[in-house]
């Protein structure tokens, strides 16, 4: 009864206003629909977000209790601690800590025996030209590769940004999880595949300027060190060591559905909860996060190169001075690193 009364009142109001202002009925209906849409929009977004979260959590649980020990995790942890140390002071691009990180990474690539793949040995110096990054001098990627046994195959490009926020207002932003964890895993994988050569050529790219616009990844293409047709897949590693409910997000299979099957197989081999998602547009998932353009894989995706981005959800230490080596979860980080090894092995075999 009340609903009918409200409808009658609205109808009478519309008729009166139409007569007074001579506005067509269809235009008034358009206003009403637009108003209802605006009123219910937050509710619809929230419902879509909840549905997406349910979809993620409905994915298979881990089937493995513990990952094997194939990587030199002791060495990997030592690398992480150094990258997140006082000496490197947050590895800010253009700051002394960032320059030290470049030279140290080039030395590590040399010790591992990677083939230099930069424009100046292992380094690829460049100068950003827009935004805050253009004020930063001394930016450079550190690049090395392992030749595959089948040179006819396209390469796999493994990326992890080594820069972080550096020293800001007198505080060091150490960046242990973001992204010393990804760079230390990159080095561990390089050591493994130097010992056990892959089928595909692997490019190991420690990238600069991720925090200020993904310039390092962008310059791989703008300086033509890479061409999209040469690449089978980008595997990007960014924030791997904070245990947030034992979850590791794998981004990319929405855009490249052919990746879903190997990623599902990867879950069957991993003790970590692998969630395929964080890559769907707002019209599908509402306010749920979309990480499609949130890290260096963006520059590969913009050029239609398939990518998988592995990372953990944001946490309390994200972009805070408290993102230190003491606050990571070593066992979770080890299991994630072994999972990434399995990922590279799966994609190399396919």
TrEMBL record:
Keyword Transmembrane helix: yes
A single MF term (Gene Ontology): metalloexopeptidase activity
Taxonomic superkingdom: Bacteria
Pfam families: Peptidase_M28
Transmembrane regions: 25-46
Keyword annotations: Hydrolase, Membrane, Transmembrane, Transmembrane helix
Peptidase M28 domain span: 141-343
InterPro entries xref list: M28_fam, Peptidase_M28
Membrane in keyword set: yes
GO biological process per UniProt: proteolysis
Name this protein carries in UniProt: M20/M25/M40 family metallo-hydrolase
Species of provenance: Rheinheimera tangshanensis
